[in-house]
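Pilot study result, target chain (301 residues):
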Amino acid sequence: MGRMQDKLVDGVYGLGWAGVKKLPEPAAVALGRRIADYVWKRRGKSVLRLESNLARVVPQAGPERLRELSRAGMRSYMRYWMESFRLPAMAPERFGTDVEIKDEHLLREALASGRGVIVALPHLANWDLAGAWVTGHVGVGFTTVAERLKPESLFDRFVAYRESLGMEVLPHNGGAAFGTLARRLRSGGMICLVADRDLSASGVEVDFFGAAARMPAGPALLAQQTGAALLPATLHYGDTPKMYGRIHPEVEVPRAGTRTEKTAAMTQALADAFAEGIAEHPEDWHMLQRLWLDDLEERSA
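Predicted structure:
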């Protein structure tokens, strides 16, 4: 049964990449919205978890407002997928016109310094489109890390897809990935990491919207070990087909403290930058999993 299910999942994603990119753009947009509304109306676990997460972000929202936000959130999430399926067929010049990033100069200045650059961002809007903007508009390749997916063939699809956009993709397998990322940074390269959810046992506890959560230590540790610039980034959609974003000021390594204390302070600074972007555009935060520690404890109880 497991093998059959794996084949089905891989087949669905394969159909998406093969079929959606051939659709006219308005048809793909409409299809994504219909799928999102269908999933939202079913009120499954992912939708309920999204609403629970959004309740933390917008604590003043009542049930009706949370339902509006979760519906918009599912539409945003499906927009991510429709865009991602179409990205390999998108003309490279569109990456400069369809994406508008505020304070882009902070990224370009950090790259010009030769120190290496770490861009850390949350699951907001379309991080793959942002990556294509970096490679196609800024003109810089970068390295990223991908969570291992099941089936293995699906993970291979994701790797091939992202590599087709000019990214180097490493599997999330602990020390080996960290070492490669450090080497890329020491040579003046750039890495991009989605960093609002910890996928290891070494996460750093942060205050996030007034409650404890864990976020990965990797960005802060890499900045300390290599001297690279650590730049938070946040993204959001608007009323137009464009995607918008912002490069936040560098998170600097504290002058005093142990490595553990420095890592905690820097990761909290990342969490604060992420929270700022998420609070401004909560409907574009695609967090359909448990994140806060008390939610994780409920599941394990």
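One observation from the pilot: The radius of gyration is 19 Å. A full batch analysis is planned for the follow-on phase.
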